From TrEMBL:
InterPro entries: ABBA (IPR033964), ABBA_DMATS-like (IPR012148), ABBA_NscD-like (IPR017795)
Signal peptide residue numbers: none
Binding locations of dimethylallyl diphosphate: R117, K198, Y200, R263, K265, Y267, Y356
Presence of keyword Transferase: yes
Record bears the keyword Transferase: yes
GO function term, MF aspect, one: transferase activity, transferring alkyl or aryl (other than methyl) groups
Keywords (A to Z) from UniProt: Transferase
Pfam hit, one: Trp_DMAT
Protein name: Aromatic prenyltransferase
């Protein structure tokens, strides 16, 4: 059955979905793949990104740009192709099932459009072996490949932190027992006029697996600028504040652009889960002022997506509603902690702070998260793209069996804006290996994953009937 959904974009051209696939994906599929492994990845990932960009109302040209970039540069770097009878030799720390990519949907303002991004772990053929024990070199190869063809791509900071963290010499696990030795992620943001590349460093303290400390990151950052006031404020907070002292440093991210325009993003986590502790981190213990409206909106969002009572206590711990599954790719929980990053700009007096709500762990279901988020956005006049987001969730879930247990939405990130609103981003795990892992668990032995297209019991489409809330 052919379904045609015409929507006018800015240039007047019609965006369409035909035979349940966006036309941009069908057009891009006509071109040959760079490697044998890229074909199966394209069949899995291509329709997801095509749907996401279509539903975010990207122009046809931008949809094709995103898909052709994915096909030519990214998919050949994702490692072994998914197959019915084999698992990847490298389990990425990016997701709980080891999938080496994650999508994100940056939500629109009242008069703007969403932005689609994705993050990957590039996986080389020697990853985990003596030649590349922490899987560093494939990311370096990809960046060097992109440098001549992407305007504005600047590897100055990448090279600085690679040397500062001694990434070439990393030899052991990043403090994760029995875990993969992931050392880097890379993300892509397709803007109107360029592609912005972000890199994420997961170093160890000594190159042999000890967890990084705040000193690990601070020492590397201080050599970039003599004005590190925002960084020093972060260090004061984590050393002296009762909530700040619970923060554990995890990784550092940078934009690969001209250094004068780039920022440091220091990611941290905390086992403290009360809303009181969240607000302490978001305001740096009260030093970040004039965010009362943002706090009110964050409290509302937090309650809606986690299904809390309207008058929930700020001092109570937030309860886990979907327990950790140790039978997935990693024996440790990637989503236990409340996660934040400090956005540190050279010369700034204070950092900006972003909070990641681990909805995969603290909300009951994908359906509940989507319903709560949709209600929040509609109540605040930002619901124009909710239906498109729900359609995208349906597309990503198509290959998972009913009651599979796979949770697509992992985090919702929130940051205070100057106008009192929240900058919001939803993160999504396609669950490339989830079905394989659960099939093996059920059978008690290695059992390949089956391509599945069952209608799942979480009917995202039903959420479009929003009872008149606009």
């Amino acid at each position: 059955m052919t379904e045609v959904l015409p929507t006018e974009n800015g240039s007047g051209a019609a965006l369409r979905i035909v035979n349940n696939q966006p036309q941009a994906w069908q057009a891009a599929s006509r071109y040959p793949f760079e490697t044998e492994e890229a074909g199966p990845w394209w069949q899995l990932v291509g329709p997801h990104l095509a749907t996401l960009t279509h539903e975010a109302k990207y122009s046809v040209e931008r949809q094709l740009e995103v898909l052709m970039f994915l096909q030519s540069h990214v998919l050949p770097r994702l490692g072994d192709a998914p197959s019915p009878d084999a698992f990847a030799h490298w389990k990425s720390l990016l997701t709980n099932d080891g999938s080496p990519l994650e999508y994100s949907w940056k939500w629109n303002s009242k008069d703007g459009n969403p932005e689609i991004r994705y993050c990957i772990e590039a996986i080389g053929s020697q990853a985990g072996k003596s030649e590349d024990p922490v899987n560093y070199f494939e990311t370096e190869k990809l960046l060097l490949q992109l440098a001549p063809v992407l305007p504005g791509l600047d590897l100055t900071w990448f090279e600085h932190f690679t040397k500062a963290f001694d990434m070439h010499r990393e030899t052991n696990t990043n403090g994760k027992p029995e875990g993969p030795r992931t050392s880097m992620f890379i993300a892509f943001e397709h803007l109107d006029d360029r592609v912005v590349v972000k890199t994420y460093f997961l170093p160890s303290e000594d190159g042999r697996g000890s967890p990084p400390t705040f000193a690990t990151f601070a020492n590397a950052a201080r050599t970039l600028s003599s004005n590190t006031k925002a960084l020093e404020e972060v260090l004061k907070y984590v050393s002296s504040d009762p909530h700040g002292s619970t923060l554990i440093p995890d990784m550092l991210a940078i934009d690969c652009i001209e250094p004068s325009k780039s920022r440091l993003k220091l990611y941290v986590g905390s086992t403290h889960t009360s809303f009181e502790s969240i607000i302490s981190v978001m305001t740096l213990g009260g030093k970040i002022k004039n965010v009362e409206n943002g706090i009110d909106q964050l409290r509302e969002l937090f309650g809606l997506v986690l299904g809390l009572k309207k008058d929930f206590s700020w001092s109570d711990d937030t309860l886990v509603q979907d327990p950790f599954d140790a039978n997935l790719a990693h024996p440790f929980d990637l989503y236990r902690n409340m996660t934040y990053y400090f956005d540190i700009a050279p010369g700034s007096a204070l950092p900006d702070v972003k909070f990641y709500i681990p909805v995969i762990r603290y909300a009951k279901s994908d359906n509940d998260v989507a319903a709560g988020l949709a209600r929040f956005l509609r109540l605040h006049g930002r619901g124009q793209f909710v239906d498109g987001f729900l359609t995208s969730l349906e597309k990503i879930r198509e290959r998972h069996a009913a009651h599979s247990g796979h949770r697509i939405q992992t985090f919702i990130a929130a940051a205070f804006q100057k106008d009192g609103s929240l900058a919001l981003t939803s993160y999504m795990n396609p669950g490339i290996y989830h079905s394989q892992i659960k099939a093996r668990e059920r059978a008690g032995h290695m059992s390949g994953y089956t391509r599945i297209s069952h209608r799942n019991p979480y009917h995202f489409a039903q959420l479009r009937r929003h009872n008149g809330v606009n």
